[in-house]
Amino acid sequence: MSTATRGAVSAEQTGRRVEEVLERLAATGDQAVCAAAEELVRALMDFYGAGLARTMALLTESAGAGSPALTRLLDDELVTGLLVLHDLHPQPVAARIERALAAVPAHPAEVLAFEPETGTLRLRVAAQSGGCGCGSTAQSAREAIEAALACFAPEATAVELEEAEPRAAEPVLLQIGSRPVEAR
Fold this sequence. Notes:
- By secondary structure, the protein is mainly α.
- It is 51% helix and 10% strand.
- It is built from 6 helices and 3 strands, in the order αααααββαβ.
- Strand 1 and strand 2 (120-125) form a beta hairpin.
């Protein structure tokens, strides 16, 4: 996460907030107010989406698709969330899944499969060490990965984790020697 976005509101949080406000308005029973609020949200989304589309086109046109400026924007969780929300992100979902996983280096994971129809992402995660046998490390890995995916690749709506086989312990070298003189 870039330092500019720490503490910033995410696209996911904002979406939940908008839904909560619309639900509160719906609870009043005033259909005209609800319809006006939904129209307002759509108009703002269209406006900001058009502005983002123009920004991306101008940036790509002037700096190029692989420019450091564009790369920096795509690494920013807030910007990426907005681009995904407006279907403007220039990278395919597979690349964004990889970007999300790279954003969680403490929990390395390998993509086994992504099913776009269901949004299910299957991952193989490194065997967790810690020795207690509890699922807390697996749960923390899941939470960190899901948070990164929500930002970079929200198309992945369900995560299935498969733990990698633990590496076999190195065989212990057995020393075979002659018997001590007293034992003979």
